[in-house]
Design goal:
The complex is a heterodimer of chains A (336) and B (331).
Chain A lengths: L1 H28 L4 H6 L5 H11 L5 H13 L15 H36 L4 H15 L2 H15 L22 H7 L3 H38 L2 H8 L4 H39 L4 H10 L3 H29 L1 H4 L2
Helix pairs in contact in A: 1-13, 5-6, 5-9, 5-11, 5-13, 6-9, 7-9, 7-11, 8-9, 9-11, 10-11, 11-12, 11-13, 12-13
Chain B lengths: L3 E10 L7 E11 L4 E5 L6 H9 L7 E9 L2 E2 L5 H7 L4 E4 L3 H4 L6 H13 L3 H14 L5 H5 L8 H13 L5 E5 L7 H18 L2 E6 L2 H7 L2 E6 L2 E7 H6 L4 H8 L50 E4 L2 E3 L7 H8 L1
Parallel strand pairs in B: 3-8, 3-9, 6-7, 7-8
Antiparallel strand pairs in B: 1-2, 1-4, 4-5, 9-10, 10-12, 11-12
Helix pairs in contact in B: 4-5, 4-7, 5-7, 7-8
The chains are: A mainly alpha (336), B alpha/beta (331).
Protein name (chain A): Peptide/nickel transport system permease protein
Main location (chain A): membrane
Subcellular location (chain A): Cell membrane
Chain lengths: 336, 331
């Protein structure tokens, strides 16, 4: 188990290095560049040259890359030129990361908490009204683009009915202490209950919008997996022992049916992070998704590099954790 | 009084857009305390469906069960699932055919044994676990304390079947149903498992319904044998009677298709011609008649009734083996 973990961490290192090279070259191959973005089209040649030199963009690419690596190892990813000009890119990332994490975790919790039970009951009453309704719902969830759904939710619940806030992370009037940057958690830690509640309410609509695709995938897979498992001989054995419905359900059906679902939850982090870019845009949440779209608009190499690299690492790490969790549930993978 | 009375049990599978299949068609038999009754026949004759109907394990949807299954005076077919759950594992247990797929791959063996003890004998988790170790030891699994924590993939085929037997007998049920318990095992292991079953049945006084297509198993285990064909009992007899004087052509065919050590060298086995696919429905005559060497004209017109031909002996045949000889003896 330990060797496996170490090997997977080694893979993480390789992914990071390869991705950093690709990212570095690819960003600089884009037309425009930070100089035009910062100075605008009517800047003089002289001021352009000064900025190019200042940013080190006049040096050959491999020299730039090497300098980038040397600094990156110490955690210095350069200074933001477009998203928050003058602030170190790492700081921009760290400031914005909690908002995205909070949003993604809530969305994933919603997707799991609704998708798994619904998948189970839909399977047990295959062809019933609940089954058909859930399938239709999950189809809509996958088919409707996240940004459209986000707008729709915002329009209906925030603008038409006004029951939930339309944007931001917390109401401006609330006097909240922010220790960790996770606003809900901050509120709970400092026992500022109104602040925690307010932050949670702000998260609700974006989290629902973001959860639709993971929900649909988790629901579908749970349903299919339960349908497979209930046909298994060991479920019949369990029933032949007269175990109560709860034990048969939990210990004998769900435990087996969850195996493929756990893997897919890891893969859904990808969908969450890409969905966050659009959702944060619609609900004006200052997270890394928003930093990413701003970074592209303003050609902010430093911020883009740190955000994309970190996102990729999170994705790989989450899937490592998922694989470890898988081994914890399935004993057949532990002994070899 | 009989422990289990099965009366006129019928199971029909009703599927939309498919013709209704009658898997079991009016089967009646008794099982007396401590006795072993065999249900014998080839695949598709309804022997497994009969056992699942007794256990209440048939899928609810698309299945019509009628008749009566009476265990110690209570009618099982009228129990709700919840009531049935209180009896299954306690009053009647079952051992299945394929031990690999019949064990849960992600639950330790020990828990799979102790959960049934916990459920029906009201023991604590710890006491149930200790009892599970004792049971594993009794069914011949060495080092039971270690095995408790292991999973089915870590056990051999024979061990798995022993573990399943331990589960089925954990609460010392009055009735045990064994559905082809040795079919998936190596020949050497088969004999061990049969011996174990025999011992345990004698020890606990459990009655056993042995479901098999293997006449060797019947010869070694059963007191009384029911031969099933196409969902109906075609012959019933005490074991010795059946083997020494089979009357139904199907029973005789089954025996002739078993290789024997004492048959002359070079003699070919005599398989039963055709397959179950050649059956005609019972409504139109004897289902076996298209494959039967003894078939008369009447066999394709009218289904024979199950008749008592002598004490403890039932037969469903218009032209049984030995009929011609008997007639000649009368003349």
């Amino acid at each position: 188990m330990l060797r496996y973990t170490v090997r997977r961490l080694g893979q993480l290192l390789i992914v990071t290095v390869v991705l950093s090279v690709l990212l570095f070259g690819w960003l600089r191959a884009l037309p425009g560049g930070p100089v035009s973005a910062l100075l605008g089209e009517r800047a003089t040649e002289e001021s352009r040259a000064r900025l190019v030199q200042q940013l080190g963009l006049d040096q050959p690419l491999y020299v730039q890359y090497w300098k980038f690596v040397q600094r990156a190892i110490t955690g210095d990813f350069g200074v933001s030129t477009g998203v928050q000009p003058g602030t170190p890119a790492m700081e921009v990332f760290l400031q914005r990361m909690p908002a995205t994490l909070e949003l993604s975790v809530l969305a994933l919790l919603l997707a799991v908490a609704v998708g798994i039970p619904l998948g189970y009951f839909a399977a047990r009453r295959q062809g019933g009204w609940l089954d058909n309704l859930s399938i239709t719902w999950s189809l809509i969830g996958v088919a409707v683009p996240v940004f459209f759904l986000a707008f729709l939710l915002k329009y209906v619940f925030a603008i038409e009915f006004g029951v939930l806030p339309a944007s931001g992370r917390q109401a401006a009037g609330i006097d909240a202490t922010h220790a960790t940057g996770f606003f809900v958690l901050d509120g709970l830690l400092t026992t500022e209950w109104d602040a925690a509640w307010n932050a949670l309410v702000h998260l609700l609509l974006p989290a629902v919008a973001l959860s639709t695709i993971p929900f649909a995938v988790i629901f579908r897979l749970t349903r299919a997996s339960v349908l497979d498992v209930v046909e298994e001989d060991y479920v019949r054995t369990a029933r032949s022992k007269g175990l109560g419905a709860m034990v048969v359900r939990g210990r004998h059906i769900l435990r087996n049916a969850m195996l493929p679902v756990v893997t897919t939850i890891g893969l859904q982090t990808g969908a969450l992070l890409s969905g966050a870019v659009l959702t944060e845009q619609v609900f004006n949440i200052p997270g890394i998704g928003q930093a990413l779209s701003l970074g592209f608009q303003r050609q902010d190499y430093a911020v883009l590099q740190v955000v994309i690299l970190a996102t990729a690492m999170v994705y790989v790490l989450v899937n490592l954790l998922v694989d470890l969790a898988y081994a914890a549930i399935d004993p057949r993978l532990r002994t070899r | 009084m009989a422990l289990l009375e099965v009366r006129d049990l019928s199971v029909r599978f009703v599927r939309k857009s498919e013709p209704t299949v009658s898997a079991v068609d009016g089967v009646s038999f008794d099982v007396h305390p401590g006795s072993t009754v065999g249900l014998v026949g080839e695949s598709g004759c309804g022997k497994s469906v009969t056992s699942l109907a007794i256990m209440g394990l048939l899928p609810g949807r698309g299945t019509e069960v009628s008749g009566s299954v009476n265990l110690e005076g209570s009618e099982l077919l009228r129990l709700s699932q919840r009531e049935f759950d209180r009896r299954r594992g306690k009053d009647l247990g079952m051992v299945f055919q394929d031990p690999l797929t019949s064990l849960n791959p992600v639950v330790p063996i020990g828990l799979q044994v102790s959960e049934v003890i916990e459920r029906h004998r009201g023991l604590s988790r710890r006491d149930a676990s200790r009892e599970a170790a004792r049971l594993l030891d009794r069914v011949g699994i060495p080092d039971p304390d270690r095995r408790l924590k292991e999973y089915s993939h870590q056990l051999s085929g024979g061990m798995r079947q022993r573990a399943l037997i331990a589960m089925a007998l954990a609460c010392e049920p009055r009735l045990l149903i064994a559905d082809e318990p040795t079919t998936a095992l190596d020949v050497t292991i088969q004999a061990q498992i049969l011996t174990l079953l025999k011992e345990l049945v004698a020890e606990t006084g459990t009655a056993l319904i042995m479901i098999t297509h293997d006449l060797g198993v019947v010869a070694g285990m059963c007191d009384e044998v029911n031969v099933l064909y196409a969902g109906r009992i075609v012959e019933r007899a005490q074991r010795h009677e059946l083997f020494s004087r089979p009357r139904h052509p199907y029973t005789a065919g089954l025996m002739a298709s078993v290789p024997r050590l004492d048959s002359p060298r070079g003699q070919r086995l005599a398989p039963i011609e055709g397959s179950v696919a050649d059956n005609i429905p019972w409504e139109g005559g004897c289902a076996f008649s298209p494959r039967c060497g003894n078939a008369l004209a009447v066999c394709g017109e009218r289904a024979p009734e199950l008749e008592t031909i002598e004490q403890g002996r039932l037969l469903r045949c218009h032209n049984p083996i030995g009929a011609a000889e008997l007639e000649r003896a009368h003349d």
